[in-house]
Specification:
single chain, 713 residues, alpha+beta, eight-stranded mixed β-sheet, five-stranded mixed β-sheet, 52% helix
Amino acid sequence: MREILRVGSRKVWLYIIAAVIGLVAGYVVLSEQDSPKFQSEEGILDLTQAQLSTNSQKLTGKWAFYWQELLSPEDMRVRSAREGNQDHWISIPSSWRGYPLEGQRLSGTGYATFGLVIHLSEQDRDEMLALRLSSIFNAYKLWVNGELLEEVGEVGQDKHSMTPQLETKLVYFQPESDTLELVMQVSNFQHHRGGITRDIELGGSDVLTTKTNLNLAKDMFITASLLVIGLYNLLLFILRRKDRAPLYYGLFTVLLGIRSLFNGELIFTQWLPHFPWELQFKIEYLILCVSGYIITMYFDCIFPNYVSRWFRLGTRIVTGAFCILVVLTPAIIYTKLLLVIGVMVVLHMIYLMIGLVQAAVRRMEGALIFLLVSVVTLVTVVNDFLYFNGWSLVGNTSPLGLLIFTIAQLILLSSRSTRTASNEERITRELQDVNDKLIEMNMNLEQTVQERTQALSSVHDDLQASYDRLLHSEQGRKKLLAYITHDLRMPLSSMLGYVEAIQDRVKPERNEQYLKYIRENTIRINRMIEELSFLSHLETGQVSYRMEPVQMIPFLHGFFEQYELVVRDAGLDFILDIGDAEDRRSILPVVEMDAKRIEQALFNLVSNAMKFTSSGGLVRIALVVEVVNHALHAVISIQDSGMGIPPDQLEQIFERNYRYDRPGMGIEGSGLGLAICREIVQAHGGVVRAESDGKMGATFYVTFPCTVIEGKG
């Protein structure tokens, strides 16, 4: 073994050394970029040579520090006039834990007041400025020039009088002079590191708003990607439980996606600002503790016999002990173990990397890629532990590193699954050929041989049945992949387009609207993942619907408002035509349906109309109530001004995987949209049909029976 590691692994070690050198060089570059150009001295920061409207600055350096005092700006002015200059200064960003004061070093809990005076340049005096405040442990109040501008949590002098909260904030103000006086009260009795531990940025409102929105979009993209990949692999395990690798990989990526909600821009607290602080920290630390154990089990599935029995038992015991400690103790205790937990996770990764080196030397498939991305992930995770302990300038790199890791593992699992399926098909073909030859040889044998031939024929039938089951499983997998491609491609592409629009500052005034759309699509993607089982079993009827009475007019208004931006950004006019139905007291159609399923079906029709309509065209939604066979029906029509459909193909377009492409149009699609739409509508007792003259435009009609007709009065 030593000889193998000394001679045969030279190429592997060269790859590792090259990856480490590249990461170290990148760290040096990023650290240099994060180094502040201006530092405050004794509570005064001179920014007269900076132009904040175009370049934001981090407020680093020495701030005035008043320990165990909660002073307002007026209190500080009175105290300064009475006692003279402040003689205690603290470096920001940093924790007050360990700060020397009167011969003693402070603990992480307590409360204090911070002060900073900033001198601005003349051109920044009348500009709209902003302060970007990351999470501060654990509650604070902020005054700018004597005006209270922000309060996160409730500041108090003991644990019972304060309310902890972590939240990123962007505070806007317009200075009336060239001097800013910042006063901040901070209290912490829940975390072992209190104080201003993250950078505070001052800059033009547009610059910091754009930066914050880009960071938020990046975090949401990483989170959505991790959740989609993880849930997809969990579904694969549900369909084929024999292979546990997708189970551990799916759990790992889903947990990482959840944890990313609590880091960076703190997306989770923006959605649920009143979510319990203690529970938030417990979730984050529990995920951190179990990640090492889960990745060990995943590695054992991919490369068997490389993880020793004692290591599996030891990591199970240690992980369980840490999880129990996190669950049973308050944050003030288990947050002190962050470094120990980090060492545990890093030791897991180092142990696995030793096994990966051995697997790469033996040229096992995927081992080298696994090893290189593990090096990248290890460096980003180590950097995050150093950053959260105040020892690194480059922070929050692990989500990106872990996303790279998960994408590499997705490629590895896909290759492994494809290879397994190919081997099964090859073995089946070989068995089929052998069986055919045996049948041919036994045709002229005596009765005894015929009996044996019958036995072999029975074996052949069993093998054929096994082959059919494997083929059915493969078809199910392909259907599942087709559903994912069809239903997730457009929202993900739209989200990427709006992220690029924000990054390129195409229309800054619409950034808020773009971000809202990105968030809504992220939520919708997660919901669509949960419905994949429904899509893969549509034709077998193994689907449950949440039927309830729905008023069609408000439903169509909501549908129109939700997708208006998508259609109009595609260069099309989007019209909702309810007619005078809203003004009639006696005609308010109500349909018994599952609103989410019908929304999905209608969106498939709108998406189909968008694909076949050129820019400048029209998509129109209308609603009428008709009498069909002495019964009232609600008829929704979706009309476009596109290229039309030949009349002889109006029935075929609803068949699975059927696509109509006019020569020269180059329109892509999976051919599933209209088939899915028909299945959903028919499950509701409705009918969907299309009309077109084949020359100009097409109209799709969706008809539902009305349960009742309600009036306004």
